[in-house]
Write a structure and sequence with these properties.
- This protein has 6 helices and 7 strands.
- It is α/β, with parallel strands linked by helices.
- It has a single domain (3-171), classed as Vaccinia Virus protein VP39 (Rossmann fold, 3-Layer(aba) Sandwich), CATH 3.40.50.150.
- The chain is globular, with a radius of gyration of 15 Å.
């Protein structure tokens, strides 16, 4: 597979049509090798407009959803992010390339190890991935400038809705089309 062409097509045919026009976001998605974060059985789908299964019933979001999230957050280089739900580490890497520091919490130890390995192979250094079960009652190392809930939540969990920096964003996992 020509991954450079696949990334180009992903950006031009999937992400731009979803009203993602921020050049910085488009650049990040054009450069980061999504295939490095995809389980080996699904490498051929790395740049497809689909969610990719991970262990424990988890999955990677479709690239267009990651792109909209990044665009809507409008992260600045000096900001810090708390992410709940690391998964493969792909969204974590995109967040890290958009800000100063990311702390990502994941409830499955094997996904923590896999994400740490994926991030290291991609050269992403400004991320801490930690194992955490459930919703921690206190924010570690807060306050954060943004909060990304990469897990299914009906609403922002109470500890985060009151403990984050007032400017933090509580992003629901689901996104609707433009």
């Amino acid at each position: 597979m020509n991954t450079q062409l696949a990334r180009f097509n992903m950006v031009e045919q999937q992400i731009r049509p979803w009203s993602v026009l921020d050049l910085r976001v488009l650049g990040l998605l054009s450069q980061l090798e999504r295939s490095q974060f995809v389980p080996a059985a699904f490498t051929s789908l790395a740049y497809s407009d689909t969610e990719i299964p991970l262990a424990h019933g988890e999955h990677m979001l479709a690239p267009r959803v990651d792109a909209r999230l990044l665009q809507d957050l409008q992260l600045q280089p000096h900001e810090s992010v708390l992410e709940i739900g690391t998964g493969s580490g792909y969204l974590t890497a995109l967040l890290a390339q958009s800000c100063a520091q990311v702390l990502s919490l994941e409830c499955h130890p094997d996904l923590v190890a896999s994400a740490q390995q994926n991030l290291a192979q991609a050269g992403v250094r400004n991320v801490q991935v930690r194992h955490s079960t459930g919703v921690p009652t206190a924010l570690p190392e807060g306050p954060f400038d943004a909060l990304v809930l990469a897990a299914r939540w009906p609403r922002c969990p109470r500890p985060y809705s009151t403990c984050s920096n007032p400017m933090a964003v509580c992003w629901p996992w689901w996104v609707t089309s433009p």
